């Protein structure tokens, strides 16, 4: 199967923070792959902007090095890397001063779509928006892309949204969450709303519970300063896991259009009940297997920031009343593993008797590292000896099912092209961000007021024992990380 590539018109893309880690690892290699695929025309101009004075040639060398490091070797040899580098320019610029802005204005093409990627800290978002709009570098068709974190709490998120809204309307603002660009996340909507098989069963009458797991094997080294202020709740639950929860729980939108999809996601967030204290488990990894502890990684021997969190959540609506959602995420866990597991209820009556055991259907949506969907069904164990039942997976690995030609674009590739096309379906809206913080803030204030300390857990384990007890009290078990 060959993916269909639809070219876009030439555009100007300005990457503030153009020499930063995100630009090096994701943005620039992603643009290179879209250029190789024939989606980006050669008339396009990509301008890196930053404080360093490396010049155009220095920037092209920087980008070439990044592409060799983070793209497949065959891509660099087959595609014309030098042709892509011809699209690049660089401007040394002061986001809060006057330097470089006149040079940037002179490089932009009149009448062409302009997209400005804020690959910088949120503290600069307001300054950049003011400089761009106040300096006449934008028009009604211009777009800005902002990276998370979208604030630190509700108050800061509202202030950030207000700063952007003062110069740009909501249809020009693209708040990027790379999880929404993953192929499997979008396939979740296709599975739900494109198949009659699942949607009639997608409710509390048939679903026992849903688990959402985002496990990481790495620690926080390299992000220590940020993570110590954020923790797992702010860094992962408030955005990534919240978005996955919305997609798994939302009502079918009237149309697959940006605002209709985001309207339904917003309803899910607003339907979330407050989380009870005994439904929260926070953890912090300790040293093991030759790796440092969290406190050593952040150089704070008294840190009370969580590197792991597990929550039991409920939605107060007709579809999901009574169905628990178990969320967990953490650093230094057993494996890199992101999955959504929908566990269906038992059959109302087993005709096979107690000796057949307990069997349940499960739908697993695997987000990483191997994207795919698995449906676990119950069949007879082959051979004589009576009716013995076993659970077997109907497994669809995207790589195997769709063939090697279906090399799915990286999330950033898809999302950047959506910005250029003006499609906001996979981007967060201002009220969505604020609603997520409105639910998150009381959870954080609660454990801070109680003085709760995170539970220690061994590095490369499944997290603290209390997390296992959180779900085991309900007669359920976590799906094993890495399975």
Automatic annotation (TrEMBL):
Span of domain Glucose-6-phosphate dehydrogenase NAD-binding: 14-187
Molecular function terms, GO-annotated: glucose-6-phosphate dehydrogenase activity; NADP binding
Active site: 240 (proton acceptor)
Domain Glucose-6-phosphate dehydrogenase C-terminal: 189-479
Residue sites binding NADP(+) per the record: 17-24, 51, 148
Family assignment from sequence similarity: Belongs to the glucose-6-phosphate dehydrogenase family.
Protein name: Glucose-6-phosphate 1-dehydrogenase
Organism name: Salinihabitans flavidus
